[in-house]
């Protein structure tokens, strides 16, 4: 059974006003080469096509524009064979026509392989507002003024991106949602310096766990969690809690009692079973292993109690 055709359809804006231009972007992925197909993009009612752009591999191709009961259809006939695994991208620009009422509209795109009844489709919903939303903040007399409605829509279109950013401010404070360039800024709130060489997913997890790690700094649990964030594996920490023998009436040799110069209190062993680094060049593999070892040692040095020492074993 062959893989299915895939059609993706999206718009540059899903809430728009009369006079604005909306760009519809469509992507078609063919499952096998040597198959021509047709693509139909139906614009919402009240949208008039103004420009188009086809796939780069078909620079000379042009669509047909069909008008039926107020709906424009952009029809592409692609006779050139599509390459398997390579998607064709299309763009259709359309201008929103004036309307007297708010409208919820649908745009649909579907691809049909030549000589086949099979097809793949996708659709999106758009909202067209007849008047600016900001009119409700003005006296009601202005709601009947068409010129005022257009002026308000003009200012609203300028400020909408800023308004959207303000609405999404909480996402900038979330380590899982903030843009990558904001992660160092969030880390500075916790006096944490993120290593830019770490993968983004590990930096986000470290940032999410930073407050908890700071509260438990110097404990075995915190060190284990920190090492797991970086290495992706669970470390084993062995602590040596032997008690020095003290001479006196109650002195006894037995379990948990140490004697001699070999007894070093405050020493623990960290054992890590790490996967081999995938690098063909031996010198590059050695460099990456040395870098990984340096980061692990830096984590242990930063998180262990100041009076302790450790032995690191990497398997």
Descriptive account of the structure:
With 315 residues, this protein is of the alpha+beta class. It folds into two domains: 6-130, ntegrin, alpha v. Chain A, domain 4 (Immunoglobulin-like, Sandwich), CATH 2.60.40; 216-314, no CATH class. Helices cover 26% and strands 31% of the residues. It has six helices and 15 strands. The chain has helices at residues 146-167, 169-172, 183-189, 200-215, 220-231, 282-303, and strands at 6-11, 15-16, 21-29, 35-42, 47-53, 64-68, 71-82, 87-96, 103-113, 120-128, 236-239, 243-244, 257-258, 267-272, 309-314. The strands form four sheets. It has a six-stranded mixed β-sheet, with no helix packed on it. Strands 1-3-8-5 form a four-stranded antiparallel β-sheet, with no helix packed on it. A hairpin with a 2-residue loop joins strand 6 and strand 7 (71-82). Helix 4 packs antiparallel against helix 5 and helix 5 (220-231) packs antiparallel against helix 6 (282-303). The longest helix has 22 residues, at 146-167. The radius of gyration is 32 Å and the shape is elongated.
